[in-house]
Amino acid sequence: MTKLLILNGPNLNLLGTRQPEVYGSETLAMVEETCTRHATEKGADLRCFQSNHEGELIDQIHAAKGLHDGIILNAGAYTHTSVALMDAIFSVELPAVEVHLSNIHAREEFRHTSYISRAVIGQICGFGSLGYILAIDALVAHLGAE
Ligand code: DQA
């Protein structure tokens, strides 16, 4: 069975109350539940993890090697700053998809740069929580074609 990991970074635990006009009104628990249901329908097993700490996210990426077949990552603001997270994805050589709820390219200049993008198959942004569902489909299709 295909095993996927969704990692959410800083401040995404506040989904639902954090700038709902930008990030939507669904809580992270709701998003994770919808994703888990969708993954099951796709015949995949899904684990979800959120942390506000860069090192914990890196540890989860390292631990994914051997346990998971692919990673979906919304690194939050670390997207725009973290060479360490980019290196972690390169290091484990697992296919990964980058997700952002908002369209980072239509926002402030500093959000246009993503270190994560260099290490992933592709980026999905601007579709709200639907982005995670699209990422599951993309990873399942990618892994099936490997
Ligand atoms: C985000 C976009 C980032 O710029 C921001 O720092 C976040 C959320 C998104 O999902 O749209 O925390 O990754």
Structural class, judged by helices and strands?
alpha/beta
Overall pLDDT: 97
β-strand number: 5
Number of distinct helices: 5
3D structure, described in words:
The protein is α/β, with parallel strands linked by helices. The chain is built from five helices and five strands, in the order βααβαβαββα. It has helices at residues 20-23, 28-41, 54-64, 83-92, 130-145; strands at residues 2-8, 44-50, 70-74, 96-100, 122-125. β3 (70-74), α4 (83-92) and β4 (96-100) form a beta-alpha-beta unit. α2 (28-41) runs parallel beside α5 and α3 (54-64) runs parallel beside α4 (83-92). The protein is globular, with a radius of gyration of 14 Å. The two termini are 14 Å apart. It binds 1,3,4-trihydroxy-5-OXO-cyclohexanecarboxylic acid. 1,3,4-trihydroxy-5-OXO-cyclohexanecarboxylic acid (DQA) binds at residues 11, 74, 76-77, 79, 100-102, 104, 111. Residues 11, 74, 76-77, 79, 100-102, 104, 111 line the site of 1,3,4-trihydroxy-5-OXO-cyclohexanecarboxylic acid.
